[in-house]
C-alpha cells in the first residue's frame, strides 16, 4: 500500500508538468483504485473525461470504479457501452458477468460468458460461481478443477469446491478440503465458513464462532457468515442478536430461502409471531412450493391459535417434502395437540433441540445443513482489470 501511495505522488508530480497527458491520468486512476482511494480515483477520472469524454480507456476505468463502489447495475451499463469497441472484449464481458453475479443474476452472468474461453482460470472460476448459484454442481465442479490447476486461482477454486461439497452434504470431503485450505491460509473466507458450519453441526460452538468471526473480519458482506452468527446466537438463546444477524444475512442473500426460514424461526423463538409470519411470507413469495416455508407457516399459525390453517400448511409441507424439518415438526405438534394454547416460550426447547426428521436433526442442524441449491450466496473473486 505504501508503494502505491508513493507511486500516486510521483504521478501527480508528472501530471502537474504535463496536465493533458491522459496516460498519466489513467495510471493515476488505476493506482488510486488499487490503493482503495475511491474518492481520489473519481476526481482524476472526472479530470480525464472532461478533457476526453469519449476516451474508451477512461470509460473502462469508470466501470471499474463503479465495481469498486459496489454500484453493480451502473457498472453493467458502463461496460455494456464498451461492447463492440476496441477495448478487449473478453475483459469487458468478464466484468459484465461479474457485476451480473453480484446482482444475483447468475443466469444472465452465464449468458454473458457464453463462448468465453473456459481454459482461462479466472473465466472458469467465474463460470463455476454462476453455475453453483444455478445448482449445476457437476458443471461447476468440472470448471473448478480447471481453475485449481493454475497457481493464481488454485486456492479460490479449492475453496469453492469445499463450499460445493458442503452444499451437497459431502461432510467429510468438505471437512478435508476446508482443513487443507486453512493450513495454507487461516483467513480464507470460504474455508472458515465451511469449517464453522461443520463445527456448528458438531455442537462445537466456540470453534464455530471463531470461524465465522474470521470469515466476517475478512469479508463483512458474507451472507453465510452472518447466517452462521445468527444460528449461533439462536443456539445460545440470544434471540435479539440472532434476529439482527439473520436480518443482515437476508439483506445480503435476498433470494436464499434457508436464511429467510432461519430468520422466521428466530422471531418465533423471540415470541414475535407477526414478524415471523412476515418473514415467512416473504420467503413464500419467492418460492411458494418450498416445504420448509410452508412448515414454518404452519407452526406460526398453530402458535397463533389458527389450527385450521396450520393443518392445511402442515399437510402441504409434508406433501412437498417428507424430509422437511418444519413440516414434520408442525405435524408432531398437531398430532399431540392437547387442546391447550401453545406459546413460543413453551416450545423453545423443543424448537432448538428436538430431533424431528429422518436424520435425527434439530432445528439448527436442519437449517445449517440446508442450502437451497438454486439460490446460493455469491462469493466473488476480484474483478478483472
UniProtKB/TrEMBL annotation:
Superkingdom, natural source: Bacteria
Alphabetical GO biological process terms: cell division
GO MF terms held by the record: identical protein binding
Listed Pfam families: TPR_16, TPR_4, TPR_8
Name of the protein: Tetratricopeptide (TPR) repeat protein
Organism in which the protein naturally occurs: Microbulbifer rhizosphaerae
